[in-house]
Amino acid sequence: MTRTHATFTLLAMAACAHAGAQTAAEPSRGELLYATHCIDCHNAKTHWRDKRRATDWTSLKAQVRRWQARALLNWSEGDIVEVTRHLNDTIYRFPQGGDRVGMQGARDAEFAPPRRPAAPPPG
Asked: How far, in Å, CA of 104 to CA of 120, rounded?
């Protein structure tokens, strides 16, 4: 193998490794919140037990809301939906409710300017 060929081969391998690293999906906000605040107590056994309380999207979301309140996390509605979505996508697979708040929606709501009160009617 010539020196030029070896150099080219190393560069090609490095480019492939870099491209592979870029395609790895970043964790969702729901996954990050769950990993940070929930996983220590709520491992996979919690979600697979016979008498689990989450039986559909609505009850799963209610359980996320309940436990975040109990842990005094003060999550926004968007955070609750994101964690619910993460659990549903990775474990439960319930038909999803009408919650349309996603990561971008939660971020937009968090930084949206306050609404102005409606102007009084003329007269």
From this structure: 33
Tell me the helices (H) and strands (E) count for the chain, helix number first: 6, 0
Domain extent at residue 38: 26-111
Q: What number of other Cβ atoms are within 10 A of residue 13's Cβ?
A: 10
Domain count, the chain: 1
pLDDT digits (tens, 9 = 90+) for 79-120: 999 999 999 999 899 998 777 655 444 444 443 444 444 455
Name the token pair of 2.
């010539």
User: With contact defined as beta carbons under 8 Å apart, do 57 and 88 qualify?
Assistant: yes
AA letter at 46: T
Instruction: Please check whether residue 62 lies inside any domain of the structure.
Output: yes
Per the domain annotation, does 3 fall within a domain?
A: no
Whole-Å CA distances, 76 to 4, 65, 70, 79: 57, 10, 14, 5
| Threshold 0.85, pTM exceeds | no
* Under 8 Å between Cβ of 34 and 87: yes
